[in-house]
Batch of 3 targets.
Target 1
Amino acid sequence: MHLIGLCDNYRQWAMAAHESDFVPTMQPSIDASGHRYVHVVGSSVWVHDSCADTQWTTHFLGMHGDTACWGVDVPHGQDPADGAAVDLRTFFGRATETEWAVAGRAVQLVEWGRTHKFCGRCATPTLIADNERAYTCPTCRLMSFPRLAPAVITLVTRGHGDDEEALLARGVQWQIPMYSCLAGFVEPGENLEQAVAREILEEVGIWVADVQYVASQPWPFPHSLMLGFRARYDHGDIVCDATEIMDANWYRRDALPMIPPGISIARRLIDDWLAS
Ligand SMILES: [Zn+2]
């Protein structure tokens, strides 16, 4: 179990908290008025104002207003929620946007802890670092930080005015006939704009230009950071990579297929386009 001492630089994070009501910090504020424990059961969450078992490993998440938030690693085979824990997609409909982000952070940090118990280089059991979010190896000093996998997601458009069209695609894994923006992970050695262009070319054979960043979104399934872009069609005909894309088409605003729910940044990219 990792119990972390109280933070004395309250003023610094309180100023940041003024701009956002959740601040991811290393330690709780000395002025915390309460605690919230996000119990991570498998990859599902159950939130309670006390920790179900103080012997379980906890990760401090940050301050939500003046509430100290913790992630609790519920050991495999145990369930303090008696089946009431819900996956993050379900939790999205039951929580505020901030509460959902805090729960997502809990899942990511708990999963990071579960998968970094041993050094990746020499297999020695790791220790939690004292003053930063890391596991360290006492033998070879390798440090392991929380894993984030950046992924780009892009809405490609062509044409103008009422005739403008967006390129939407259905993934081969999707059980429902939903169409969304094209997405993929950033490769080592490329920048974000290059990742956008490469992914779209690989998945549907389209060349794009004028790649513009729009917004980002933590995506804890299990540890992505989604980076949303717009891009303009340049040239090429749609040729789907059958290993990833079942179908892709150009759609006008007045003839859209089923699009993703509000939880995803894909939906925001599409909604922004619809409103433009
Ligand atoms: Zn090591």
Note: Residues 119, 121-122, 124, 137, 139-140, 142 surround zinc ion (CB under 6 Å).
Target 2
Amino acid sequence: MQTGQAAVQLNDEKLFQLCKVYGERARFWRQKFIGLLPEVYRRKLYEKKGFCSVFDFAAKLAGVSNEQVSRALSLEKKFQDKPDLHKALVDGEVSVNKLARVAGIATRENQSFLVEQVKILPKSALEVLVRDEKAQTRRQAKAHSLRSCVVPGHKQDEQLPIMQEARVEQLMKLQLSDEILEKLVELKDKGIDVNALIGGMLQKREQEIAQEKEKLAQAQSVEKSSRYVSVKIEHLIQKEYGNKCAMPNCKNNADHLHHEIPFALTANHNPYFLKPLCKNHHVIAHGIQLAYFGARERTRTSMLLRALPPQGSLSTNFSTRARIN
Ligand SMILES: [Zn+2]
Ligand SMILES: [Zn+2]
């Protein structure tokens, strides 16, 4: 599209396209400008040039809000020991808002991974990534406290009731019918080990799934590949994972069937490497694949991001999601 066209002569679609192009350029250069601010602040360049503060400098030269300036300056301090994140900030590679989202979970070890994710993931997926990371830390702390029989923040004599309460809550979640509950109690009264009984049933279920999976995986290795996942595999995945996202503690419905090894590399749908995921975890999974499968996956990920409809608009019907890698 040519620039300099009088807006009045453009139809709605062309005017909208032009707004998007200019908007994108404005965001890009504003990001670059914000990246310079820590150095401007360090040199007190704003004073030398007659501005009363770095905030005044940023507002007058680029219309940047005080909040964005504070964010950039505080992140720059926070990232002193994390060179990859620091570079992403001062080079204006990504927005400070996105960097601020991951700052709380950033470590020297995960910083380069986070930079990669900040570049490709939309804000909503980044939030889920951060939430998962925090939940994982909490789970580890909880597992540690359970091992040492201590619930953090409570005195010794308060521990038992709190732990019992948590068990009751989990039992209520099962919503056992009166009939099943009565039968179990009856069996227990007869001296039958109810735990062993249920444990055996669960084990049988797992064995059935494992056998079926092995059979389907073998068939996949010889079958002619199709873009679409077979109904048999869809049923097996549904049997194993239900209709929710496969990520631990994610309560969202699964919207997509994800190939942990890209279909483009294997040309099959080996059920060992298929996972039902919600929209955000699917985007995150592709962000993680980038680290393993490189530039080729980068193209697929950006295609995926563009192709994804708004959250919740896909049904949980496996046939609709099975088309997406
Ligand atoms: Zn996928
Ligand atoms: Zn999820």
Note: Residues 7-120 form one domain.
Target 3
Amino acid sequence: MRILLQFPEGLKQKASEYAKELEKEGNEVFISASPTFGACDLALDEMRNIKADKLVHFGHAEFHHVDANVEYIPYYIDAPTALLPESLDILKAYNTISLITTIQHIHQLEAIKRFYEDNGKKVIIGKPYGFAKHPGQVLGCDIGSAANVDKQVDAHVYFGGGMFHPLGALLNTSKPFFVIEPFENKIENVDKYREIYRKRSRGKIMRALNARSIGILVSTKNGQHNMGLANIIKDKARKAGMDAQVLVANTFDFMSLNNMLQFDAFVNTACPRISIDDTDRTRAPLLSANELMEVLRMKAEMVALHGKR
Ligand code: SF4
């Protein structure tokens, strides 16, 4: 069988090991060297181009069904739980907590839940919106496991490495939010980032108010492609008197975007995190669709008040 292996960045160094195993079984094996951001980003074009019979995607659960022979191999990591007793003191004011993590630690969630319950907490594990597959699991673009239970809990607790995953959940919830970082051995209340990101978003909207032309980002990645939304945005922007063009890429290169000097703002329809995490990388404001709608609303208000665009 002709097999293409695809690994996320953090696991790419393990690719040869797996390739050799599969070769021993008589397979012809190739390794995707493209950047990989998630199961939203399957190497389907590469698979077709090299006529692979199967794509083996490591480290992520299925994002959505695709019409191709794809095998998903999860990669679980046992993170140290030594910080849990210390977290009890920090969480003492909150009786009911939600618990979230990433796919890498999802197998530990039940034990962590039991620990808190044994120590008198009520723990609610929410369900994701659908791209994430397990209760309590969050993705950068699926924070349902926290947002769906926001009203029922006194605080949210994220267990896992880094700020990428908790940030999305933080920005879409309202309760005190704690990150237990087992690899850096720290527990942090991250509520302050809500205001920082709200101000950043407001700043982008204000900067885009004078934009006369926008470039709308459409990714060809299987789980990020949203031409329907791009067409709605284009239509609304043009009706508001703006020039609007759709820009297509697999992975957006910010240097290339910055070379498109004709655009005064960019609007993202690809991975929703691009317009949150990458806003410092473009010379013009990089807006989400909702932020553009706010720009158009404010522009319409200004036209109503001052009578010109
Ligand atoms: S956050 Fe972005 S990169 Fe991650 S799974 Fe969602 S769409 Fe893909």
Note: Residues 37-38, 40, 139-141, 223-224, 271, 273 surround iron/sulfur cluster (CB under 6 Å).
